[in-house]
Amino acid sequence: MRSITFRKVVNKIFEVFIFFFALTLIIPLILIIFMIVQKGISAINWEFLTSIKTPPYGSISGGILSNVVGTALLVAFATFISVPIGVLAGTYLAENEKGVTTFIIQQCIEILQGIPSIIFGLVSYIWLVRTTGKFSGISGSVALALMMLPVIVKSTEETVKMTPLILKEASFALGVPYYKTILRIVLPTAFSGILSGILLGIARIAGETAPLLFTAYGNNFFNVDMTKSIASLPHLIFNYATSPYPDSHTVAWGASLVLVATILILNIITKLAVKKWKT
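The chain above was modelled as a monomer; its predicted structure follows.
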């Protein structure tokens, strides 16, 4: 009887132990969000979200619309570049699990996933900025696309691998060509996982600053021409947070709140979209 009681006590202690460490993951996030909301909420108003230009220093009059639009354009172009390559590469890896080519691609993806973001910016700077002689939104999108690729490739590979083999066999038995089986059977079945990977990739690159310092550079004016330097929220936060003026710090906190809220909403949409697709 004492042995059973002892085991129950040990199990309870173990559960408390696990719960404590789970809290250590949640508490930092709560503290970060609390600080951002506390310091940034005073800057949030209709003018802040819809006005075009915020002065670089001093007064916080103006807004971050150009930075929001710039970030959206950079992410959209990066997604346009990385999704086709990532989905096709992930499908290839899932369909060809063995072989030297598969091994090399997998190792490259693993290495690519571990490269610091500033290196992507530096490489894009050498490839595009120095070649063209100017900063541009396109070079920034290329840097972000390179960062986004590993997430899409891995999610696509894992999801396609989980596609029931019987679906492919049934398709082949009906005489459907291989490419149609992949495009009309496998990829639609794996859509939820692929979508999840795409949205997670977007959430990852949306707040990146280092690659944009070398590529898109930033712009104090409203610009949607991707062949020129373009404004972005991360770049604005970097500039204003490092300035000596308190009003600029308020703008940086407000922009941080907008960026964090956007990423949080994106993650929630990811979960809901995947859940709805599965049902």
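Residues 47-278 form a domain with the MetI-like fold fold (CATH 1.10.3720.10).
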